[in-house]
Task: structure prediction
Amino acid sequence: MSSEILLARVRTVLVDTSHPGNIGAAARALHTMGLTRLVLVRPRQYPHPDATARASGASVVLDGAKVVDSLPAALDDAVCTIAFTSRPREFAGRVLSVRDAAHEAMRCAAAGDVALVFGNEMSGLSNDELAHCGIVATIPANATYASLNVASAVQIAAYETRVAAQGDAVWQAPRFAPASADEIEGLYRHAERTLVAMRFLSPAMPRRLLPRLRRLFARTALEKEEVNILRGILARVDELLGRDPGTQREDVARRPP
Amino acid sequence: MSSEILLARVRTVLVDTSHPGNIGAAARALHTMGLTRLVLVRPRQYPHPDATARASGASVVLDGAKVVDSLPAALDDAVCTIAFTSRPREFAGRVLSVRDAAHEAMRCAAAGDVALVFGNEMSGLSNDELAHCGIVATIPANATYASLNVASAVQIAAYETRVAAQGDAVWQAPRFAPASADEIEGLYRHAERTLVAMRFLSPAMPRRLLPRLRRLFARTALEKEEVNILRGILARVDELLGRDPGTQREDVARRPP
Result:
């Protein structure tokens, strides 16, 4: 089953939300992670201009939000119901970190709908509301200040759900052509000659200069173009020292034995 | 080195932030994850009542924020500088997911300070600002709407940094005494007798009823108290059927061979 289908089965349920701005921010958080479904249980004020403003470009999620008057109505046919709370509860049963809960959510999504449930800004979910859900999830946090904003908690849950579904591969900058071993050796030979000519390197007492330079450039995984730039700088130093730069370039065609 | 010391070495840098509310929300996000240091580069409005309001209980981070007038001043002695951007850039160099970047940050924190850098709400970080940082980090997101609110991005980065430092172990509800194997077998024997007496189970045609019940309760990892509750219900059924409940209890003391 594709990760898009799995993510499409996730609904986020906000219970008794006080501030409409948080509803909009939660809609935006969901949209950034490719989640689409929002259910509002007894929102104090909705629709509201603050919700629209904080949703920013995520009106598709906000406008599609469903309003219901009870938590069971919001959960209805979900086969996996996950209640988020930071507060330890004696009767919580199965308690998972948000990361483990997200993996469980994606496992269950193969079989049906999943609900992620978040409580009111001041009091969170009640014990009774928690008891309607099969799993309790909690976000690792500062023990002395675990009070995440509700939309921030939705953001982390949505992020972990997306990563559970699709992994965390991200865009990469384009790779330019890597330098070959002989191009890199040509650079080191050129550098050695020029550093000797500059009298920065003494052939009689080389110390660790060349190994240090090799170590530094080895970490960079030099590209062809970068070798050309560095040899261009060396050739310019050669010119300024009055050496014939032509003689420094012959080894470009030379190969290691 | 303790995870507290590592986290104390992380500073979060907000560049050219337009909305003071986002500065307050970022301070709250950091505080929830146990991060303490906030640096503001040319904030448009700061201090501001919106920043204070959105910081909620996190005034300790907001009040300690340092304001500087350039990104290099904000990075100064950091040994690891991580720029956050959602937009692919040609010259980005080393690009990590936020999760990998958080692990790298904690690895580097053993050697010195770490900076997490976030750009302006509309335009993010410029290419020039990005070039001041050693690592580019990006948060996996919806390709068609990757526009996280800046405080939401800070929340995810702070969360991943905390999890990289301390793992994601969370509170667990108290464990009650588990039932022993013989207590569980006593329950199944009792259930079998009662179900036969109820004529719900036919000894001649038992079908898969008892194995299904065993499978169900095996998944629950029964507690002692739960076995007592279930046997109490069975005993009440026995009473209603007119059987002497005393005869059903003798096997409690029986042990499997």
